[in-house]
Specification:
heterodimer, A: 357 residues, nine-stranded parallel sheet, B: 64 residues, alpha+beta, 1 helix
Chain lengths: 357, 64
């Protein structure tokens, strides 16, 4: 295959994980005087192959090399500079971790940058299908659809100005950690088969949809913002594994179709109040301005907060347990907590006295 | 709409910076956290600087 076609596609042979080599494009940023660090783990079979720099990209601590020999069975660190304009690295598309360590559940950053070091760009769909971990926190403009055939992927992190797109792949069944921020337009339903998920965070222009899956029983952190249309909870055990420590739950949407019914919010309150939470800084935040997020205000008796006999309901006890006993910061649409006097907003008469007792 | 700032009293770590509509405010343990409301973002930022509050951008709930 010609070099020209390879450059055009960002590949040397074919699109996707079958490509023999990939091309990463780097753009000089700021003064261009500092180096970025790329870390890739190559299996033993890839030892002695060569990564080549082109254009204004240079390798090495002194910024004067155009080649670097790969160490097989090891994490390879590439010190990349680009003093002006752009350049590329042409590298074997056989690495299995885009990370600075070999921890498959807690990978470290595989792309470290400064304000004066190069920014990275590539089509994420061209990365190897055998990739296990991907963590890119540095300056980047990564684009492309999330590859459906990354079936070994356990941990995915992409921040920066990425424009990652495509549906959340159902086949990423080994996933434990998913974090995508930036200008992404990720879509698709929350995959029910991501049963090992502990951490899910999607911010940007995403339009994630569907229900919160009941099978995400190990989840301790969930945060979805953007234009999502998540509008329900799959019946089941969404409250999760009581042996794990819950940290964070936030669902808000700029799309009026995204939001939960009051009944679903009560379900979450009751379920999460039974969990062990991180000591402080935990958050339970469903205070979305989206129309579909139902207000939790109810000043009637009997109603959501008090029974006909004026006894606090289970959901009232759950709210107090979360906020006062477990120090979780709870935000729910239409509610303001009682102050030193009064009943706050959205609660019935007498609620404040019980809250302060 | 108000700018709502919530931080931990003990270490001044900011936990939440969020724009919230009237009638909706965080529900929290007043022994642990402090909440302050502002009309403008500039007022909030000035308060953060004056009181030497600590922001952790990746974890703070920041919708501003």
């Amino acid at each position: 295959m010609s070099l020209g076609l390879g450059l055009g596609l960002g590949l040397s042979r074919a699109r996707g994980g079958g490509a023999k080599s990939a091309i990463f494009t780097f753009t000089s940023t700021g003064t261009g005087e500092e180096a970025s660090t790329l870390s890739l783990f190559y299996p033993a079979s890839e030892g002695d192959k060569v990564v080549r720099a082109t254009g204004n990209v240079k390798l090495g601590a002194d910024g004067n090399l155009t080649e670097q020999v790969i160490s097989g069975g090891a994490t390879n660190t590439f010190i990349v500079t680009c003093s002006s304009g752009t350049g590329t690295l042409v590298l074997p598309n056989t690495y299995t971790r885009f990370s600075a360590n070999t921890n498959d559940t807690v990978p470290s950053n595989g792309w470290v940058t400064t304000t004066n070091s190069p920014s990275l760009a590539f089509d994420i769909a061209t990365l190897p299908i055998s990739l296990i971990t991907f963590r890119c926190d540095g300056s980047n403009t990564i684009s492309g659809d999330l590859p459906a055939d990354w079936k070994s992927m356990t941990s995915f992190t992409c921040t920066g100005s990425n424009t990652v797109s495509g549906k959340l792949p159902n086949d990423w069944k080994s996933m434990t950690y998913f974090r995508c921020q930036g200008l992404n337009s990720v879509s698709g339903n929350l995959p029910a088969d991501w049963k090992s998920m502990t951490y899910f965070r999607c911010q940007g222009l995403n339009s994630v949809s569907g229900n919160l899956p009941s099978d995400w029983k190990s989840m301790t952190y969930f945060r979805c913002e953007g234009l999502n249309t998540i509008d329900g909870i799959t019946d089941g055990e969404y409250a999760g594994n009581p042996a794990t420590i819950m940290q964070y739950l936030r669902l808000v949407s700029s799309n009026n179709l995204g939001g939960l019914s009051a009944e679903n919010q009560e379900f979450l309150l009751n379920g999460k109040a039974s969990r062990t939470w991180v000591g402080t800084n935990g958050a339970f935040n469903l205070a979305s301005t989206a129309t579909a997020m139902e207000s939790m205000a109810d000043t009637s008796i009997p109603g959501r907060w008090f029974s006909a006999a004026g006894v606090p309901t289970g959901v009232a006890v759950a709210l107090k347990t979360l906020a006062i006993d477990k120090n979780v910061i709870v935000s729910l649409k239409g509610l303001t907590m009682p102050d030193e006097s009064g009943d706050g907003a959205g609660f019935p008469v007498g609620f404040g006295n019980w809250w302060r007792s | 709409m108000k700018y709502v700032l919530l931080y931990k009293k003990a270490d001044k770590n900011i936990i939440m910076q969020q724009i919230m509509p009237a009638g909706t405010r965080p529900i929290y343990n007043t022994a642990i956290y402090e909440m302050v409301e502002f009309e403008t973002e500039a007022e909030m930022l000035a308060y953060i600087a004056e009181n030497e509050l600590i922001a952790k951008p990746q974890e703070v709930e920041n919708e501003l």
